[in-house]
């Protein structure tokens, strides 16, 4: 266990938070109105902006995307003996809430096109689990599917939703990294039964930490809201008939989010410019692989045709080998520039070593060869040229 870990300071960070200046107006409003708690005008306004942007009827502001996933599971009554199918190639926060609920995570490998959950492997897992001895245990149920839009790239939601509907399994859409991304013209976060967003400091917009739960199902959001505020019963005194949580977002954080929402489109534009710069400078010269968007109705996966637009939250590449990836990463680190390997697949994580896994080695290969490049919206052209120059010099 690491103790007193020192946070390193870099000249160029992977994805540092950036203030827009527009937050000040809403912060002043919150302070002048003495609305410094979990409720206030800024919370209401931020909810309205999210509902409008994502195209959902209901939204709940929370203290993290992780809390949003747990509350989504609670809204679906996920508990012990239940099974939740989850993307394998993701950050651990997508999967930890499954354990919070005492449920069993089952991890699904990636497809090469989007790097996200492979619909073919998903259906194979559903069929296998329904036929297994596990399904004969009392109380067994395939309770939810959690696809993830990795690094802002939308997953094949049409195929995933078709499987979910066929087997009557709700979908919790992890759009933590994908605010502003779209799938066939529809915003990510509105493509499942429930959607989650993250406003962590490294995301495309931030509330200095926070998240949101989204749905068109009012009952889901009302249940989540009740549980997120310590499950207080409707009584004049403090009465609690079930376990609750302290998961709500504060009005000050919502004020920051309102200012950030005003520049969301600018942030997406800049993220996409950064991706394009890296792509043009590196793809042909070193034959790196980039996750690319489809042209209209071109086939990305083996299962469906769809159009996607990524917010390009982080620019990611697949190098030729683990050794080449490490050569680049260490060269950048030596020059005080932050980069990092892609997410380590969940089935390789010690905490999930006993969890079932369906797939081959797609996610594992991406982890071994993949690298996230600095992609902060405050990066200058000089910063980008410096990063590319170092990569070219060591290769």
Observed structural traits:
395 residues; alpha/beta; 4-stranded mixed β-sheet; 4-stranded parallel β-sheet; 36% helix
Would you tell me the overall average pLDDT? 93
Q: Sketch the major β-sheet.
A: 4 strands, mixed
Adjacency order of strands in the biggest sheet? 1-9-8-5
What is the global morphology? Answer: globular
In which range does the helix fraction lie? 25-40%
Uncertain segments: 295-300
Q: How far apart lie the N and C ends?
A: 35 Å
Helix/strand order, N-terminal first: HHEHEHEHEHEEEEEHHHEEHEEHEH
The number of helical elements comes to 12
Topology of this protein?
Blueprint: H1 23-32, H2 41-54, E1 58-62, H3 65-75, E2 82-87, H4 96-100, E3 104-108, H5 119-131, E4 141-146, H6 157-166, E5 172-174, E6 182-183, E7 186-187, E8 194-198, E9 211-215, H7 218-228, H8 251-261, H9 264-286, E10 308-309, E11 315-318, H10 322-334, E12 340-341, E13 357-358, H11 362-369, E14 370-373, H12 381-394
Parallel strand pairs: 2-3, 2-4, 3-13, 5-8
Antiparallel strand pairs: 1-9, 6-7, 6-10, 8-9, 11-14, 12-14
Helix pairs in contact: 1-8, 2-8, 3-7, 10-12
Question: What does this protein look like?
Answer:
The protein is globular. Helices cover 36% and strands 13% of the residues. The longest helix is centred in the last third of the chain and has 23 residues. A 4-stranded mixed sheet has the order 1-9-8-5, with helices on both faces. Strands 4-2-3-13 form a 4-stranded parallel sheet. A hairpin with a 2-residue loop joins strand 6 and strand 7. It has 395 residues and is of the alpha/beta class.
